[in-house]
Amino acid sequence: MMNSTIYGVSVKSSVPPVVVTNSTHWWIPQVEIPYLLALFLVGVIGNVSIIGAIVLEKKLKFIGNAFIVNLAVADLIVTAYVVPGVLANVVANKNLFSVGMCSFTALVVSLSCLSSMYSLMFVALNRYTAIVHVNRYHNIFTKKKVGMFIIMIWIWSFILSIPPAFGWGDYRYHVKIHVCMYDCDTKFIGYTTTFIVLSIFLPFAITCLCYIGLFRVFRNNRARRKTLINNVPMSTVSSACTTNGVEPDAKRKKSAMNSILYGALNRNFRNGYKKLWSPLFRRCCKKEISPRTNDTSTSPICDSEYSTKKTDYKLHTNA
After folding, report:
1. Which candidate, 70, 111, 169, 200, has a CA 20 to 30 Å from the CA of 278?
2. Among residues 196, 195, 154, 160, which one has the least CA distance to residue 69?
3. How many CB atoms lie within 10 A of CB 253?
4. pTM (predicted TM-score)
């Protein structure tokens, strides 16, 4: 049953509503499905790699990387939980979630995105303090305080995300992107404005200010270094740079950039990745015991290594 208006009179009709399909967009699912699959795989493997690298690599176990771990956890929630739901909705071409599940998913999306934004902000604050306020760094970013900061990130994100569950704001399913999230086009202008300012503009502005400050420090140190090179004999330049903090500041400005790039250009992160994933690829070189003959067999790589070691041992004994 559906209502229609003819000459100003409301008339009930038993004809079901017609769903108009735009045939020019038939290719969208064929593009979205591979994209979502790739996003899921890359997101899960990438964030697990970042967490594992920091846990396993000793050189990465400094307090500032706790915010990188928190950022990876927040992103992992989105890629491991939200993206598969979006993929299922794209395949079914409809919302598969119930009203309660849709609201819960929208809450998870909001909570994770807010935690990511504020984690990035604390990464910037951590790097800025480490470079500009070196003497105060160890008093501000202790293990206990960093743990409190991370807890505060999630509590604050939850406080900003929960009002729609109590009627102030609206969570709904968005047809175009196949996901349940907050609806910014609602009548709740007050909450929408507050949400956007506190969840996007505030952390983004603080992050930008921190990196602008880092850029100024880097630029000033580079100018000081040029002055030293032009006015001081070369034999004293290296010691002057070390005592004045030019070289350490430049290095910190670079360790800062690697944190934002999730360690893609950092050798310590690559070492952590190897420690995490190499055991999975090392099985090809393990000995396998046959259940019938109890003989041991090795892979071709292991055979070649064993024969080489055996030959070296004979040469050594003969000598």
Report:
1. 70
2. 154
3. 20
4. 0.69
